[in-house]
Write a structure and sequence with these properties.
The complex is a heterodimer. Chain A is α+β, with helices and mostly antiparallel strands. Chain A has 15 helices and 8 strands. In chain A, the strands form 3 sheets. Chain A has a 3-stranded antiparallel beta sheet with strand order 1-2-3. In chain A, strands 6-7-8 form a 3-stranded antiparallel beta sheet. In chain A, strands 4-5 form a two-stranded antiparallel ribbon. In chain A, a hairpin with a 2-residue loop joins β6 and β7. In chain A, α4 packs antiparallel against α5. The longest helix of chain A is centred in the first third of the chain and has 29 residues. The radius of gyration of chain A is 21 Å and the shape is globular. Chain B is α+β, with helices and mostly antiparallel strands. Chain B is built from 3 helices and 5 strands, in the order αβαββββα. Chain B is elongated, with a radius of gyration of 37 Å. Classes of the chains: A alpha+beta, B alpha+beta. The interface between A and B is medium-sized, with 30 and 26 residues.
């Protein structure tokens, strides 16, 4: 492949590889960069280094429930959100009623996970651009979320917590108090982050007007989540196509405004994530107020999962964007086909479009700002 | 010119605001733990290692079937009639010798799916996480408490009993078959005795 490119490019240009072991490629991503001096003329992402046959495995698992731990491993940074989409798909296929308490706990967990994922995304983005302290401070906060998760689910990264029409175990009695305490202590930290990183002049210089993704291009590439919202499009599946009980909560959709540079640049995508954390806190607060104290979270879990013949597509809003599950059932014990529409994969395809003409040093900022997780790209 | 001064001022201000944050953190409490000396306490439900209370296991194989990665390997032998294995602490009668109950922790994905189907709650996760090994085969945990000689003896006994049962069943089948054959023969004889008469009658003699 390298030879082909170099033939195309002639003598003036140079091809270099970035990754797969480069620390700022967020996993094992290899980028073939065609350079004219220091200007990037072409980018070709090479993926597949983390391919684990998730979709094929799901077909021979002979149980729908056994697929849930595998969905965790797709996007290991936001495992709860990955499970959420899958169990919702199965619940819609089986036409099951989900208990009220389960829905509230799910929403709280999903929003906590969203904050945790954004903290990692923002922290790593800053780290790529040379800001080391924010990364450490954000990880301290993320650790608190992981502690909450560990006390509830027993695991710190790959939870396998959601079951079809239920949860694997009930929350502990102090869960509400713990979460409320976290929400209270986390609010001031967002302001601290803005002081330290968001409005830091050096950071703005590195991110504003770089990797501009215009609205039209974002639509053409089917971008979603913070990448699309960073381009100024008000689109959030929690509002536009509500699933679970998100229609009961009040929250805003933060969009990029081009505050310090052009609309749709790296900084806009970054600030959308920061603002989204505040909205997640609002949702958690409302959910904590509305959560019923009584109720068995395991009573509605079906013993055998055998959906009727048919197919379903369910999309949910994960921290990275629209995650869709397309499941085909042939009445047997295992799914006939599971297809995951991973937002990271889609966003990676935007990369060549937005990085043309930028400097090689800015490539790091662009890759960081679209916040991909390679586990989800390759599945 | 004015703009340049303004920009420089903004830059300085943003940098010093950031510095203020780091200095506040510098005098704040430390959050790191010096791991081998200090340890974080794991919560009660933490999933770190699988444990099997083998005295309570009835050998139903449900956990092995629930495992997505097939890390549980169970071999059971039906107990002979002369032994009583007793009951589990939950009151379920035990009918099988557990000649093998291996869990390969190198394969385990800590999903907890094996814990829920267990009828006697004898397989569960324990918060114990320091069990790394130099050899991968050491990560296979053997939970069966039977000695190899005992396993052989139990297997032999079970085989003998199975053979005996098979023989008994065969004998019974043979007896049944014999009786059936006898009956059929008698019926045939009767029928034979009757038919000639009828035939004679039919011929009108």
């Amino acid at each position: 492949m390298i030879e082909v490119i170099s033939k195309e490019t002639g003598n003036k240009e140079m091809v270099i590889n970035m990754g797969p072991q480069h620390p700022s490629t967020h996993g094992v991503l290899r980028l073939e960069l065609v350079l004219d001096g220091e200007i990037i003329t072409k980018v070709r992402p090479n993926i597949g280094y983390l391919h684990r046959c998730f979709e094929k495995y799901a077909e021979q698992m002979d149980d729908y429930a056994k697929v849930i731990p595998y969905t965790d491993r797709m996007d290991y940074v936001s495992a709860i959100n990955q499970e959420h989409g899958y169990v919702i798909a199965l619940e819609r296929m089986l036409e099951l009623e989900v208990p009220e308490r389960v829905e509230y706990i799910r929403v709280i967990m999903a929003e906590l996970q969203r904050i945790a994922s954004h903290l990692l995304g923002i922290g790593a983005f800053g780290l790529d651009l040379g800001a080391f302290s924010p990364f450490l401070y954000l990880f301290t906060e993320r650790e608190k979320i992981l502690d909450i998760f560990e006390r509830v689910t027993g695991a710190r990264l790959l939870y396998n917590y959601f079951a079809v029409a239920g949860l694997m175990r009930d929350v502990h009695p102090k869960f509400k108090a713990d979460t409320a305490e976290f929400v209270r202590t986390f609010r001031p930290k967002i302001k601290e982050l803005n002081d330290l990183l968001s409005y830091n002049k050096i950071f703005i210089q590195r991110t504003a007007n770089i990797g501009v993704l215009p609205e039209k291009v974002a639509f053409n590439y089917a971008a979603s989540g913070p990448v699309l919202r960073g381009s100024g499009v008000k689109w959030d599946l929690r509002k536009n196509d509500p699933y679970s009980i998100y229609d009961r909560f009040e929250f805003d959709i933060p969009v990029g405004t081009g505050e310090v540079g052009t609309l749709g640049d790296c900084w806009d995508r970054y600030i959308v994530r920061v603002k989204e954390m505040e909205q997640s806190l609002r949702i958690i607060e409302q959910a904590l107020d509305g959560m019923p104290d009584e109720g068995d979270v395991m009573e509605a879990i079906p013993k055998r999962i055998r959906p009727k013949e048919g197919e379903i597509y369910v999309r949910t809003e994960t921290p990275r964007g629209e995650l869709g599950y397309y499941i085909v059932s042939d009445k047997s014990a295992s799914p006939f086909r599971v297809k995951a529409r991973a937002p990271s994969f889609v966003h990676l395809s935007v990369l060549p479009a937005i990085s043309k003409g930028s400097l090689i040093a800015d490539m790091v900022a662009i890759v960081g700002s679209i916040d991909i997780v390679l586990g989800e790209v390759d599945r | 010119m004015l703009n340049a001064v303004k920009q420089s001022w903004l830059t300085f201000r943003s940098i010093f605001t950031g510095m203020g944050v780091t200095i506040r953190h510098f005098f704040g409490p430390s959050v790191t733990l010096q791991y081998p000396e200090e340890k974080m306490e794991l919560p009660a439900g933490a999933r770190a290692r699988l444990y099997v209370n083998i005295d309570d296991c009835i050998g139903c194989n449900l956990c092995a079937r629930a495992c997505p990665v097939n890390c549980i390997d169970i071999e059971t032998v039906l107990a002979t009639q002369d032994v009583d294995l007793g009951k589990t602490s939950t009151g379920n009668p035990k009918r099988f010798w557990l000649t093998r109950f291996d869990i390969d922790m190198a394969k385990c994905m800590y999903c907890d799916l094996c814990v829920y189907p267990c009828p006697t709650n004898c397989i569960y996760m324990v918060p114990e996480y320091e069990y790394s090994e130099f050899d991968r085969s050491n990560l296979v945990y053997h939970f069966s408490n039977l000695e190899p000689e005992m396993v052989a003896e139990v297997k032999e006994k079970a085989e003998q009993e199975a053979e005996q049962k098979k023989r008994e069943r065969e004998e019974m089948m043979r007896k049944k078959a014999e009786e059936k054959a006898k009956k059929e023969l008698e019926e045939k004889k009767k029928a034979d005795e009757e038919t000639p008469k009828n035939e004679k009658e039919n011929r009108g003699e």
